[in-house]
């Protein structure tokens, strides 16, 4: 999710599309939050392990 967000942010800047930049930034933030929660061992969405 973080990588997809970074790609969308870069594409948004290159193509001049603000919506891609906004969506990419949101994905980066949400992905970082999930990554931090997962690294601390906290259950995300009711599950501890995602396959």
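Sequence proposed for the structure above (51 residues):
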């Amino acid at each position: 999710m973080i990588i997809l967000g970074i790609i969308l942010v870069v594409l948004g800047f290159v193509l001049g599309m603000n919506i891609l930049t906004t969506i990419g930034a949101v994905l980066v933030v949400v992905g970082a939050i999930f990554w931090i929660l997962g690294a601390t061992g906290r259950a995300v969405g009711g599950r501890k392990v995602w396959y």
